[in-house]
Design brief:
The complex is a heterodimer of chains A (115) and B (114). Chain A has 115 residues and is an all-beta fold. Chain A contains no helices and eleven strands. The N and C termini of chain A lie far apart (37 Å). In chain B, the strands form two sheets. In chain B, strands 2, 4, 5, 9, 10 and 11 form a six-stranded mixed β-sheet that branches. In chain B, strands 1-3-8-7-6 form a five-stranded antiparallel β-sheet, with no helix packed on it. The termini of chain B are far apart. The model of chain B has no long low-confidence stretch (mean pLDDT 93). The chains are: A mainly beta (115), B mainly beta (114). Chains A and B meet through strand 4, strand 5 and strand 10 of A and strand 4, strand 5, strand 9 and strand 10 of B.
């Protein structure tokens, strides 16, 4: 069984540009979660999507947005990039009855560098 | 406001000895706690969890202890092995509200020396 896949692995952008990160969940998982891990910090919750709907959002500005497609894959978009957006962005998936951290599977992440 | 804290950024132990990783939380509404392990260039992997109705959960070499009155949990690894060297994150959730959100600590880097 394929795990959670994220692309690209690395992304370098200039301040002010937009970044798009992609995530494919495990087959059968309907929930996708996005987390940010900045240097020296723990994982910070960004977004939760399930069945195409945004279910919850973390304490991040509106320039962080995303969506979930009918095949349950997801995109995270970061607009007007700032230097402090440089971080590892992790995606996780679960089936809804295993939400709340029970049964999360994480991808390997996208390392975003803003210069 | 850091609701989950891991106050030790790093820990070094000798192979075969016990590793104890600690985690404190402030939100009494948390009802489920998890430990994740993360190797460089990989995503976190689930290690062990505990519900707030229990005070101990064991899985092989890994045991998690929960002290609700102190709002403290710990992960014991016995015996420690070099392959256990990784960053360990504790996390908490408020399952009954089903926010889908895990609150993570900052992580503790464990080094197990051969």
């Amino acid at each position: 069984e394929a795990g959670v896949t994220q692309s690209p692995t690395h992304l370098i952008k200039t301040r002010g540009q937009q970044a798009t990160l992609r995530c494919s969940p495990i087959s059968g998982h309907t929930s996708v979660y996005w987390y940010q891990q900045a240097l020296g910090l723990g994982l910070q919750f960004l977004l939760w999507y399930d069945e195409g709907e945004e279910r919850n959002r973390g304490n991040f500005p509106p320039r962080f947005s995303g969506r979930q497609f009918p095949n349950y894959s997801s995109e995270l978009n970061v607009n007007a990039l700032e230097l402090e957006d440089s971080a590892l962005y992790l995606c996780a998936s679960s089936s809804l009855d295993r939400a709340g951290g029970r049964g999360y599977t994480f991808g390997s992440g996208t390392r975003l560098t803003v210069v | 406001d850091q609701q989950v804290k891991q106050n030790s950024p790093s820990l070094s132990v000798q192979e075969g000895r016990i590793s104890i990783l600690n985690c404190d939380y402030t939100n009494s509404m948390f009802d489920y706690f998890l430990w994740y392990k993360k190797y460089p260039a990989e995503g976190p992997t689930f290690l062990i969890s505990i519900s707030s109705i229990k005070d101990k959960n064991e899985d092989g070499r890994f045991t998690v202890f929960l002290n609700k009155s102190a709002k403290h949990l710990s992960l014991h690894i016995v015996p420690s092995q070099p392959g256990d060297s990784a960053v360990y994150f504790c996390a908490a959730s408020h399952g009954s509200s089903n926010t889908g959100k895990l609150i993570f600590g900052q992580g503790t880097t464990l080094q197990v020396k051969p």
